[in-house]
Design goal:
Length: 262
């Protein structure tokens, strides 16, 4: 039984190490634009039934309880929390923040489409609207070199004021994508997400319509990490780690007492 306690406590140490890694990643990305925090999810492991609950004590009576000893815990998943981050003004004309549901669509070098909440947009050498890492927005939007100013509407309409014309010209539309289960998206780094079987197929639409949020020009969505909350979680994880470590130390002392008295 004492040896079993060692292995159970060991799984507890592994679980808290995983939780600490998740918390550390959240804190590391506290200033990452559009970042969505994670939380670690745990499952208890299988139980060893020593005496079955509901077993027959006699021909006419059943045991109201049983004896089952757990074998520990494991990290089963990490879940993204897609709550809204704060919207911070940047005064950069091409920055856009999404207020509500939805993701910007990004075309990858292999032709696949990934998704992001990071609206830090800029122009490449051809005037195409791209992310900070140079990946083009989908559908593609190219700003004319002679444009005097660019306006991005709350519905994603992109218009440019051209020389010699009194009214702006519409040059593109930023469309948003949404998912039935956003937590099923796979984070791939660089503020990007990839659709999976769990997320469902993307639903593409116009900002401000149906379930989609609106766009705010000259602003960015900050990380939704709450530093105070993460620090409290860190203290909890540290104390849980210490308690599991103490359980290992106690089990070791019990084994030592047994071996010394053999």
């Amino acid at each position: 039984m004492t040896e079993r306690a060692l292995w159970v406590a060991k799984t507890g140490l592994d679980a808290q190490q995983t939780r600490m890694a998740v918390i550390a990643n959240n804190l590391a990305n506290v200033n990452t634009t559009g970042f969505k925090k994670d939380r670690a999810m745990f499952d208890d492991l299988m139980y060893q039934n020593i005496r079955q609950v509901g077993g027959q004590n006699t021909q006419n009576t059943q045991s109201p309880t049983g004896t089952a000893v757990g074998t520990g815990v494991r990290a089963v998943s990490t879940e993204k929390i897609f709550s809204q981050g704060n919207v911070q003004q940047t005064s950069n004309t091409l920055d856009v923040a999404i207020n509500g549901r939805g993701f910007l669509q990004i075309t990858m070098p292999n032709g696949d489409t990934n998704y992001t909440r990071d609206g830090s947009l800029t122009l490449d050498s051809t005037g195409q609207l791209v992310t900070a890492t140079g990946l083009p927005v989908s559908p593609a939007i190219t700003i004319p070199q002679t444009a005097l100013s660019v306006t991005i509407g709350t519905d994603g309409t992109v218009s440019a004021q051209m020389p010699g014309t009194p009214t702006p010209s519409t040059i593109g539309q930023i469309e948003l994508a949404d998912f039935i289960n956003p937590t099923g998206l796979q984070a791939v780094g660089e503020n990007l997400f990839k659709a999976t079987g769990s997320s469902g197929a993307p639903i593409v639409g116009i900002a401000g319509q149906t379930q989609f949020g609106t766009l705010t020009q000259g602003s960015l969505e900050t990380s939704n990490v709450n530093v105070v909350e993460e620090l409290v979680n860190m203290i909890e994880a540290q104390r849980a780690y210490e308690m599991n470590s103490k359980a290992i130390s106690t089990a070791d002392q019990m084994l030592s007492f047994v071996t010394q008295n053999l």
